[in-house]
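Q: Protein A?
A:
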Amino acid sequence: MGILTNNNNKFLSLDKAVNVIQSGSTITFSGFAHSVTPLAFIREMIRQNIENLHLIGVGEAWAVDMLAGAHMISEVWLSNFMFEGYGRCRNFSREVENGSIKVEDFSHFGQISRFAAGAAGVPFLPIKSMLGTDLETSNSGKTCKIGCPFTDETLLAVSAVKPDYAVIHAHRADHKGNIQLFGNSTSIDEQIRASKTVIVTVEEVVSEEEISKFAEINTIPSFLIDFVVEVPYGAHPTGMYKYYSEDFQHIDLYMSLTRTVEDFNKYLDEYVFGVNDHWDYLQKIGIKRLHKLKADPYLGYRLPNR
C-alpha cells in the first residue's frame, strides 16, 4: 500500500473497513451525479450483507440505488436522487413503491443545512428555501416554522443530522490520513464534520510533501478521519476529476439491467458476487478499458474519441 507503515492503525484493507459498518446504522456517502462515489466500498458492503441501513444523502444516485437493489436499506432521507442524463433510480423507486423503504424528502439546500447543523453542533439551522412547499410539512417533525428574533420574519428550522458513518471517496491521502479532494467537493465537508465515524477510500497514498504542494485544497485534516483505505479506481464506473472519467459504457449496462429485479440480480451476480474483491472487479472491467478512461493531465477529464 504505497508508503504506508504497518503501525498506522488508521489504514485498513477494504474488507476490514467495511466490517466497521454495523447493520441498522445511519450512513451517508459522497457522490453527486456520476462522480466521487465510493463504489468499491459499496460493492463490498453488498458482499458482506450489511442491512437495515438508514441512508441520508444529497443528490446522489449510485449508493442508494445499488443498496436498495440489494435490499439493504429500510429508510432514506433524500434530496433529489436521480441518475444524471438517465432518469430515475429504478431499484430505489421500486423499493419505495412496494413499501420496503420509508422516505422523507428535502431540498438540496435543506438537506445540506441539516448536515451543516450537525457539523456545527447545533440542533437546527434556519432557512427559507422550503417554505411554502410540500417539503415544509411532509417530514415527520424534521422542520418547523419559527420567527426570526431580530426581524420577525418567518423562517423554517431544519433539524440537524449526525449519521453514524460517512463513507467518502477522495483522490489522495498522506500516511497520517490527511485527505485531498480535487474539483467540486459538493457537500462532503459538511457530511464528514457531521458524522460520528468517517471512512475515506482514496485513489492513492502519497507523501506529506506531495500533499503540501496543494495546501489550498487541504480542507479534510486527519483528525476528522477515522479510517483510510487505498482503493485505485474506487469510484468506477463513476469518475474522479484529474484521474479518470465516467465509464459510460458500464453505466449504460447498469441502467439497462435495473429495469427489472431479475436483471439487476444478474448484474449483482456478475459484478459483485461473481468477483472475490475489488481487484477481481478491476480485472473483470479490464486494463484496456480502464486505461481509456484516464483523464487528460491538463484538462482533468478524458477527451472525447481519445
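Q: Protein B?
A:
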Amino acid sequence: FVALNALDQKPIATARDAWRASPGRMEQFKESAGVAGRRIALFVSRLEADNGLDLLIRAAQALKDSRPELTVIIIGKGPAQQDLERLAGELGVADRVRFLGAIYDEEQLAPWFLAADMFVYPRNIGLSLLHAFGYGVPVITDDNIATQNPEIEALRDGDNGLLYKA
C-alpha cells in the first residue's frame, strides 16, 4: 500500500462551493479585481528561484502580442520576489504580471482559482498541484518528473494538465 501525499480538500470544497453558490459573485470579483475578460495564468506558492517563475514571466512576454488578453497572477512571497518584479519590468510585462503577495485564507484564494484558466508552476511542483485540482484548474509544469515532488503522480498529461519539455 502506498499512501500518496495529500491535501485536505474540505476547506477547498467549502470555499469553492460558497463562491459558486452566489450567482454573479465571480463576475463582480473579476470586475473589481480588474481581470474581467482576461485569461488568467495563476501561480500560488513561495517565490523561490527553484520554482522557475522567471520562465512564466518570460512566457508572458513571448505571448504579449499573440495573447494580449493573458494576465499572470502570482500569489505568494519569498526571496525571489524582487528579482521577479524587476524581470517583469525589464521585459515590459509589469502590467500583465501581477504580484498579489501572500494569501493564506481559502475564501480569499478561491476566486483566484475559480477565475484561472490554468495553474502554471514551471518547476518543482508539489501540493499546489492538488490545490489547483481541487478547483478543477488544469496544471502546466515541466516534464522532468525526476525533479518534481511526489504529487506529480496526480497529473495526467493531456487530461488534467500539460507537461512541457524541460
